[in-house]
Amino acid sequence: LTGVLNRRGFNEVIDAARQSAAGVGAIIAIDLDQFKIINDRFGHAGGDQVLASVAEILRSHCLHFGSVARMGGEEFIIIIKQTHAAAAQSLAETLRVAIGALRLPGFPNDFQITTSIGVAHLHDAEHIEEACRRADVALYVAKSEGRNCVVLSDPIEDINSGLDAAVR
Q: What is the pTM of this model?
């Protein structure tokens, strides 16, 4: 449907990254806000159209930065290469704006798709799964702060406090 990796493809990219010198530098977790309303209002065909269009935006913007996977439903994850880790937060904001500007045939002109996004940079000796968890926590902080925003996970706070922490 979306033309991006599925969960199995995501796991294969992670396995390959573990054995590569380039490695993973950051994780971006993306969730389409209130997607159930889209399906309820425009039907599953409309929801599929939204998913495919969002995936195309993600794929085209992330072509040189890393890999995009759909983790299920309306949730996507982007694996950012180590060489592009510094650009992860600005890329996430660019994606949020691009998705918000998306206009689809058959949808009202004022219809806007919004996203909540969490970003986590990998720190020394951190497992990729832990960075994915931190990106997911940051995503849920974005949702709790009103949606349609990017939240950066703060690994220093995570280490110092032992708690999930995120900063805008």
A: 0.90
